[in-house]
Specification:
The protein is mostly helical. The chain is built from 4 helices and no strands. α1 packs across α3 and α3 runs antiparallel to α4. The termini are far apart.
């Protein structure tokens, strides 16, 4: 197993670049193009298109692991006890998995009412 951290470093940079592009696209489309107010009908219309669902799932799939790895790096730097680090790893991994599942289910199962 690679213990230099180079794989994690590369992942953080690649996912950060992807997130930057996705945020820029999201921001431009949501805040500069289209109506001034975003209503439920606008979101429902956007989510009716599988391309937008894919966009949001990719966004979610990049952002949650990016955040998980960042928090894990902070825990490794500032938590001295091995037992506390292990507990923190379990907690942040569980939180990341819950966020991924809830986010994916919300986007994938969204149907306008």
């Amino acid at each position: 197993m690679n213990r230099t951290g180079s794989t994690g470093w590369l992942f953080q940079r690649a996912s950060g670049a992807l997130i930057f592009v996705l945020v820029a696209v999201h921001f431009a489309l949501m805040h500069y193009m289209g109506p001034e107010k975003r209503l439920y009908a606008d979101v429902a219309r956007r989510f009716a298109n599988p391309l937008w669902k894919t966009f949001d799932i990719v966004f979610l799939a990049a952002a949650v692991p990016h955040g998980w790895y960042g928090v894990w790096g902070i825990v490794q730097d500032y938590v001295g006890s091995a037992a506390l680090r292990a507990a923190a790893l379990v907690a942040i991994t569980a939180a990341a998995l819950v966020l991924l599942c809830i986010g994916f289910m919300t986007v994938a199962s969204f149907h306008a009412v």
